[in-house]
Every structure is written in C-alpha cells, then in structure tokens.
Amino acid sequence: MANPNFLLVAFPSQSHINPALQLASRLLRTGASVTFTTTTSAHRRMTGLQKSDRLTFATYSDGVEEGLKPSTNSLEHLMDETARRCSEALRQLIETSQSKGQNFTCIIYTAVAPWVADVARCYDIPSIVLWIQPATLFEIYYYYLNGYGGNITNESNGPPSPTPLPGLPPLTGRDIPSFLSPGSPFGFLLTLIEKQIQVLKEDRRPRVLVNTFDALELEQLNAIDELELVAIGPLLPSFEGQDSSNASLRGDLFQGSGDYIKWLGTKPAASVIYISFGSISTLLKPQKEEIARGLLSTGRPFLWVIRKGGDHGKQEESEDGLSCEEELRKQGMIVPWCSQVEVLSHPSVGCFVTHCGWNSTLESLVCGVPMVALPLWADQLTNAMLIEDVWRVGVRADGNGGGIVEGGELERCLELVMGGGKRSEGMRGKAEKLKDLAREAAKEGGSADKNLKAFLEEIVSS
Ligand code: UDX
C-alpha cells in the first residue's frame, strides 16, 4: 500500500503554524507525505524552515497583496475572507492532485475552520481537526453549546457554577473563556466554534486531535461521550534532551535579534524572569510601564520579548518611550522575538510571566518552568485557572477586575514563585513532575506516540 498523503491546513498565525509544523514532522517520520498549506503572506514570513523530503508547501492569497488590510478590517470580515479564499484554494489543490493520480488520504486542519470539513466532504476525503488549545477549552465550549450553558457562570463577579464540569473545579466568571462573557465583541467566534462542533458530530467517527497529553487532562479528554478527544501532544519544536533524529520544523513569523542565549549563560540557575505575551496580543503602554516597574522592584534579571513589526509587517509594540528604559537595560534584556522553547529550556530561567496562550503554557510545562499568569483574553483566562488551581504550577496576577496588573502585584507574584519558601518549592516540584510526564508522553512509545500511531493506522486502513 502507498504511504499516506496528508493535506495539513494551518490558520496563518504562529500559534497554529507551530503545532501544525510539529505534527507535520511527526507524520513525515512515519513515512507519510505532507502538503502544508497556509496563506502566502504567512509562508513568506516563515523563517527557519528546513527542507524536508516528502514535504511540500502550497499557499493561498489572504488578500494582503490585493490591498486587504487586516488593521482596517474587522476580525469577522477577515475570518470570512479566509474561509472563502481557503476553500477555493483547497478545491483547486485537491483537483490538481487528483488529476495527477495523487489523492489525499486525509485533511488535517487547525481549529476553528469548519469550512475545511465542508470542502473535504465534497471530495469524499476524511478530515480531522487539530485543536490547538487545551482539552479543557473544548470541554467548556461543548458543554456550553450543548445544553449546559446555565451551569457555566459568565458573570465576572458571580458565584461559581453550581455543577462542576468533569475534571474541573467549580468555575467562576474569571475562569471562563472571554468569548462566553456577556457583550464579548467576539461572539461570532463562538458561532464558528458551534459550527465546528456540529460538523465534527456529523462525522462517521467523531473525534478531534488535541495538542495536550493524557497525563495532563485525562478527565477533560474523556468528558464528552459523543466525541473522542485524542491527545497527541505536546507538539513542540525539539527541546533540550531530545535526540537529534527528532529534529523538528520551525517557521517563525517574526525576526529575533540579540545574543540572548549567551546572556542567559552568564546568569545563575533559575534566576531569570522570562516575559512574553505571544504572537497576537499587544500591551497598552500603561500596562508595559507597570510591568517594567514590577520587574525593576524585584531586582532580578529578566528577558522581555517586546515584538516589533507584527502581522503583515505593521509596527506593533516597541519598548521605545518606556520611562525607565535605561534602568531596564541595566537589569535585563529586551528582544523583539526569541526562540521561546530554547529560552524556557535554559537552566538560568526561573519563571515565565505569560499571557497563557496555550502554546506558551505547554512549552513552560514541558520545560518545568513555573509561571506568573497575566491572561488577556480568549482561552488564556481558563489556562491561568488551570495553572494556578488545577496543576498548581504558578500564580495568577490580579488585574483588579480585568484591568491593568500593577507593578506591585507583579512583584508579589514573582516573589511567590521565585522567592523560595514552601509555596515556591511546591510549584517548582509540581512543574518538574509535569515536565517528566510531558516528555514521557512525547517520546517513542509514549501516550502521544501511541495515540497518533493508532489514528494513522485506522486512517490508512479505512
Ligand atoms: C493565540 C491565542 O492568543 C491564545 O490564547 C491561544 O491559546 C492560541 O492562539 P498566541 O497569543 O500567539 O496564540 O500565544 P501562544 O499560543 O502562546 O503561541 C505563541 C507561540 O509563539 C509559541 O509557540 C511561542 O513559543 C512562540 N514565540 C513567542 C516565540 O517563538 N518567540 C517569542 O519571542 C514569542
């Protein structure tokens, strides 16, 4: 039988491209062929991509070349455009492949993109979602959208939900994804998630691939009867301790600079604070000033990522103009981008101040680094709850009811995590334990490996 041929469709953002590329690496290692698809402008910006046998790239225009400006169009409009353009490109790609006698065995796509399943069905090709957030989020959305909305409180100061969901403590308004909050401007994304879940339920064998691992979210993975959640994570670029045959693909959308690894090498073990807010969100200047104040008052060295030149080259954040820039540069290092997994696996890093994007959270867990959570929106609020209340590998900073986290509050959290003492040691111990479990899951013969192989065997034989 010919080796399987996968079409992998990644939404054009770093948090989708990273796990999709890691999944591509794993599929290639099994002897499969992969066509990796994203937008032309994202692909053009992907640096660090190595050539690999049996891996081809196919791109489609997101309209940037034709003058569609993401900054002046609403996210909803952008999603509609992506759906339209992606569907059209997939049709062409499938038809061209079929005309050459090269059929796709399966289409794997990063959620949320129900339109991909619609296209796959037209050509009778099996498709499956890669969920790039924790299983917990899938569980919450599923329950919310399937008759349990009343059990999930969404008032920021309301009482906890009366009936806890499987594997989770009673949730308060502070713990739920921001899309469920009353008046959320991203309600249309909830509608898209609803459509995605509906499409999945209609599958012959309803299931989802999830970038998590069994030992981390076992109950949440088993919380839904009519849908199978298959944990194939952690899907991460190679981390320290992995053997070189596991070399994985990278595709950074941003450019780094500065010899931060050399600088980290000059610092004592577990002494450096690493700060990053992912690839999408930008911080308002007053919040950055407060973070700077908090960092300075700890007196600890830090590495802070402040992105420059964001999506589609537009100028995003800059440290320019921070009132205490000179003092900051004496105490720490500010970079526009870095190789995050390399940083987190450096022995001198002792704490990650994070927005709790799922990739960042998972990367911190895999590297055994405790966290200070400063969630901003979406799943990040729930991930912060998991970090503090469920896995107990960090603390959540209090933003005074969703407002700015003040410097003093950041300093308090950093001392809790890095200051020694029982709670600090407890968090570090739990982080070490989860690190071992994550690596156990990812290695050959581990749970992720077994789950992915079982899925592949079934796809190939069906
Ligand atoms: C988005 C949402 O904001 C998040 O809530 C959701 O969980 C996933 O989609 P993003 O904000 O980009 O993601 O955060 P995250 O999921 O953490 O992904 C960022 C990626 O960029 C990580 O893989 C991280 O390693 C990488 N990164 C970030 C770098 O490689 N270098 C950097 O300097 C900063």
Protein traits:
single chain; 462 residues; alpha/beta; Rossmann fold; 2 domains; 7-stranded parallel sheet; 6-stranded parallel sheet; 13 strands; globular; binds uridine-5'-diphosphate-xylopyranose; quercetin 3-O-glucosyltransferase activity
Protein topology:
Elements: E1 5-9, H1 14-29, E2 33-39, H2 40-45, E3 55-60, H3 75-99, E4 106-110, H4 114-122, E5 127-131, H5 135-148, H6 187-201, E6 207-210, H7 214-221, E7 228-231, H8 260-264, E8 272-276, H9 285-298, E9 302-305, H10 325-331, E10 333-335, H11 340-344, E11 349-354, H12 358-367, E12 371-373, H13 380-390, E13 394-396, H14 407-418, H15 421-442, H16 447-461
Parallel strand pairs: 1-2, 1-4, 2-3, 4-5, 5-6, 6-7, 8-9, 8-11, 9-10, 11-12, 12-13
Helix pairs in contact: 3-4, 9-14, 14-15
Uridine-5'-diphosphate-xylopyranose binds next to α1, α11 and α12.
Plain-language structure description:
It is a single chain. This protein has 462 residues and is an alpha/beta fold. It folds into 2 domains: 5-242 and 444-461, Glycogen Phosphorylase B (Rossmann fold), CATH 3.40.50.2000; 251-439, Glycogen Phosphorylase B (Rossmann fold, 3-Layer(aba) Sandwich). The protein is built from 16 helices and 13 strands. Strand 2, helix 2 and strand 3 form a beta-alpha-beta unit. The model is unreliable at 240-246 and 310-315 (pLDDT under 50). The protein binds uridine-5'-diphosphate-xylopyranose (UDX).
